[in-house]
Design a protein that fits this description.
heterodimer, A: 556 residues, alpha/beta, Rossmann fold, 3 domains, 6-stranded parallel beta sheet, 20 strands, B: 165 residues, alpha+beta, Alpha-Beta Plaits, 5-stranded antiparallel beta sheet
């Protein structure tokens, strides 16, 4: 049987190790779906293309390979957009395959035609419009190479339907040909020496851990560096878990929703070693202070991140794993001084607080997350939505591995957590996947419950229900004199337990802290997906240190 | 704010220019002038971009441009180390009486007259921004009907070239 372009595409996907594709069909990507059905690749039919791309993204974070999704031309393709941007901001390798109208109709405003390459230019690492059947194999090979190497990111390939349908006669070259793709070489020896010297001269160093440590696979190396040198560790949201968040070496998450301790420490420090972080505005608000103190060492694989948000004293461009291994060598005799360690410890103790957990008619989400990490020993993949549920999770669930805390850090996409959990669950079956959600964000990609049920994907859903868009509700309290507008969803909220039952999903609901332990046990004992509705107060604060940080932010 | 000149070698593919220009818009960088053309190797184009900003901004522009897959090589050229030229075509109002005067001015500037009609003259000149501006000032009193100017294009002085590897 003669091969078509679509057959060649699917064969090349197989060669790149793809075993599952998340997607939604339409006329333009139908040839691709047809070829997938004759291959070793499984597909998961989602309820919206956005869900497909989020699932691919969740899958990628857990499986450590590129996640793949497909959508048809026009609205199918544009529905992917939010999820592609989400993956881009968190540097997640996703390969999106879109159908396009046939070549002769491109530019004619044909039915379901959109310039998806143009629309996604600002937030894809690269993109291709395949105009020749002989380019298919090379383009797909390049796409996977680009998505997964260097600083990872999403790549989109747009296939006109007639290219997919065309007979393929063995022409073209499948070899990668990317002379413009520059992977950074090894970090400069001189720069590493400068880092070592700066550290030796420093009295108060901290290590600011970012998500790049996880994408570089440098967890072990960074932990060794920290163990040997004793440098206190703080982290961004994406870097949570580089050292376990309950570990004595860890001093909290920085940023507008971080801990008092971490935010004070970064200001008190005389040297900040930022590793694998963009130093985004939500992580470091006081950029001027750090620049003026000239105390930043910035280590990142992406040269464009150096000097983008802050000018460092010592820039180091290179892969975190390699840089860390070499730093361990040059710092073999270095140990942080005890006074600084004691100062940091004291700061942490001052800001330690007990979460109250007497019964009051609503559940404390922070106490719930405490219990959840204790009862699971954090041996789960935890996804979050965006809003209070995300910050509560980041600060109160003990995170022991950044690869197991799956959250939309950079883009802050509501509707991410539920599909990402489906993707994470499809990527492995060793550990449970728990999706922590608010009742606002849950409803953004709610239809994916259908996907979860259809493919028996056992996601454990924890729904913090407060009938509000809690984070904005709180913002309106602090910044708009309590004029609560456009944040109340009470009138339209369904009975969530009944909703779950309608999908055949088991469910329960709790109102008191004393019910937490049993509810968690019941949820985890079940083999299928499960919805636990946790009623929380709409006036529950996001964090203990919020106000102070808000003030710092406003000043800066 | 200073003016910087970037010489960028890119793959001669469809869509490359929109990636480059889109990056400027997206990141809030200002393009002062731009010119594009193929090189001796027809698979490669050279984009010459003039940007206004400080040294940090130009460094960011250059690093961000490097991340575009089709961008092969970038160099920021220094004013005293390059030859930089633009082209202008200027249609000047002219009649039998003042035509000679205008041609004299043109000769001083080594400007070619490339078209003559009963009521106009079209001059073609190449040079730096300053030279073109100076010529325009001189002929302005006669009446300028239309101007078409290109962006600047530039090459390094001496034997240096922007090699691929």
């Amino acid at each position: 049987m003669a091969m078509t372009g679509a057959d060649l595409a699917v064969k090349t996907l197989e060669a790149n190790g793809v075993s599952v594709i998340f997607g939604y069909p339409g006329a333009s990507n139908a040839p691709l779906i047809e070829s997938i059905s004759h291959s070793s690749i499984d597909y998961i039919l989602t309820r919206n293309e956005q869900g497909a791309a989020h699932m691919a993204s969740g899958y990628a974070r857990v499986h450590h390979t590129a996640g793949v999704c497909t959508a048809t031309s026009g609205p199918g393709a544009t529905n992917l957009i939010t999820a592609i941007a989400t993956a881009y901001m968190d540097s997640i390798p996703v390969v999106a395959l879109t159908g396009q109208v046939k070549r002769s109709l491109i530019g004619k405003d044909a039915f379901q035609e959109v310039d998806i390459i143009g629309a996604t230019l600002p937030f894809t690492k690269h993109s291709y419009l395949v105009k020749d059947v002989n380019d298919i194999a090379r383009v797909i090979n390049e796409a996977f190479h680009i998505a997964t190497t260097g600083r990872p990111g999403p790549v989109l390939i747009d296939f006109p339907i007639d290219v997919l349908q065309e007979k393929y006669n063995g022409g073209g070259n499948e070899e990668i040909n990317l002379r413009g793709y520059k992977l950074p070489g090894r970090a400069n020896e001189m720069q590493l020496k400068k880092v070592a010297d700066a550290l030796r001269a420093s009295k108060k160093p901290v290590l600011l851990a970012g998500g790049g440590i996880c994408s570089s696979g440098a967890m072990k190396e960074v932990n060794e560096l920290v163990n040997r040198t004793g440098i206190p560790v703080i982290s961004t949201m994406m870097g949570l878990g580089v050292v376990p968040t309950d570990d004595e070496r860890f001093y909290g998450m920085v940023g507008s929703h971080g801990s008092k301790c971490a935010n004070r420490l970064i200001n008190k420090a005389d040297l900040v070693i930022a590793m694998g972080t963009r130093l985004g505005d939500r992580s470091v608000a006081n950029t001027k202070g750090i620049e003026e103190a000239n105390k930043l060492i910035h280590i990142d694989i992406d040269p464009a991140e150096i000097g983008k948000n802050m000018q460092p004293r010592i820039p180091v461009v290179g892969d975190i794993k390699d840089v860390t291994l070499r730093l361990i060598q040059v710092l073999s005799d270095y140990r942080v001084n005890d006074d600084w360690k004691a100062e940091a410890d004291e700061l942490r103790e001052e800001n330690r607080f007990e979460i109250p957990h007497e019964d009051t008619g609503t559940v404390s989400p922070r106490y719930f997350l405490n219990r959840l990490s204790e009862k699971t020993d954090s041996e789960v993949y935890l996804t979050t939505e965006v809003g209070q549920n995300q910050i509560w999770s980041a600060n109160n669930f003990t995170i022991k591995d950044p690869g197991k805390f799956i959250t939309s850090g950079g883009f802050g996409t509501m509707g991410y957590g539920l599909p990402a959990a489906i993707g994470a669950s499809r990527a492995q079956d060793k550990l449970p996947v728990i999706a922590v959600m608010g009742d606002g964000s849950f409803q953004m990609d709610l239809p994916e419950l259908g996907t979860m049920v259809q493919y028996h994907i056992p996601v454990k859903m924890v729904l913090f229900k407060n009938d509000r868009l809690g984070m904005v509700h709180e913002l309106q309290y602090t910044a708009y004199k309590g004029n609560y507008q456009m944040v109340n969803i009470e009138g339209g909220n369904p009975d969530f337990c009944m909703l779950a039952k309608a999908y055949g999903i088991k469910t329960s609901e709790i109102n008191e802290n004393s019910e937490i332990d049993k509810a968690i046990d019941d949820m985890l004992a079940d083999k299928e997906s499960y919805l636990l509705v946790v009623n929380v107060s709409p006036y529950e604060p996001t964090g203990d240190s919020l106000n102070e940080n808000r003030i710092t932010e406003r000043k800066a | 704010m200073e003016k910087y000149t970037l010489s960028v070698l890119v793959e001669n593919h469809a869509g490359v220019l929109s990636r480059v220009v889109g990056l400027f818009t997206r990141r809030g960088f200002n393009i002062h002038s731009l010119s594009v053309g193929t090189t001796a190797d027809e698979k490669i184009s050279r984009i010459t971009i003039e940007v206004k900003g400080d040294v940090y901004m130009v460094e960011q522009v250059s690093k961000q441009l490097s991340k575009i897959m089709e961008v092969i090589k970038i160099k920021t050229l220094k004013d005293d180390e390059m030859v930089k030229r633009g082209l202008a075509l200027v249609k000047i109002r002219a009649n039998a009486k003042n035509r000679g005067e205008i041609i004299q001015i043109a000769n001083v500037f080594r400007v070619n007259i490339v078209d003559i009609a009963e009521t106009t003259l079209t001059a073609e000149l190449t040079g730096s921004d300053q030279k073109i501006d100076a010529f325009l000032r001189m002929v302005e009193p006669y009446g300028i009907e239309e101007i078409a100017r290109t962006g600047m294009t530039a090459l390094e002085r001496g034997a240096n070239t922007l090699r691929l590897n």
